[in-house]
Design a protein that fits this description.
Length: 181
């Protein structure tokens, strides 16, 4: 009779990681509300990247542990014909790698959502400071031009039919080019 301890350890490990890290970003990140957004009060969303970083770390560990378990379970270093593989370790490793991929996807969403939150916060601050393009962006949503409404420090920062318009606050903002330029 085979030793079932490695199989039990594999399934238990995969289950623990699956339930412990079910996607911190999907669970713990508050997304930006739909537009229009008022310049004040500050929007309630998650700016911190703590959850996506946690997802990234757990994803890397799960993929590494899953790959190790799968390799160990398949006995790649056995040179005799009497070696057998451990299906429990192999499937536990595959499960851990699948959890790692899921956590990686969650991290990607989390990084995107927190970046959107920081961008909306910056737009709110700029709108309150009097930057009209930022107020327009809060009302209508992202512009169709690649970086209209973005902050700039010189003409090289703006592209796609936009130019840098200086601001009193030190940084400019990318606006549509005037006709004939």
């Amino acid at each position: 009779m085979r030793n079932m301890a490695p199989s039990i350890v594999a399934v238990a490990s995969a289950s623990c990681v699956a339930f412990a890290g079910a996607g911190c970003s999907w669970i713990g990140v508050t997304r930006v509300p739909e537009r229009p957004v008022s310049p004040a009060p500050p929007v309630e969303c998650t700016r911190s990247v703590a959850a996506p970083v946690g997802d990234t770390i757990l994803a890397a560990l799960a993929v590494l542990a899953g790959g190790t378990m799968t390799a160990y379970g398949s006995n790649p270093f056995c040179l005799s014909s009497s070696c057998s593989s451990e299906p429990g370790l192999i499937w536990g490793g595959v499960g851990l790698m699948a959890v790692g991929v899921t956590l990686g996807v969650s991290a990607g969403f989390g990084y995107s959502w927190t970046a959107d939150c920081r961008e909306i916060g910056d737009l709110q601050e700029a709108c309150i400071a009097g930057v009209e393009a930022s107020c327009k962006n809060l009302q209508l949503g992202p512009p169709e031009k690649p970086n209209r409404g973005a902050r700039c420090s010189g003409p090289e920062d703006c592209r796609g039919g936009t130019e840098c318009k200086p601001s009193d606050q030190g940084q400019g903002i990318c606006v549509d080019k005037a006709p004939g330029r």
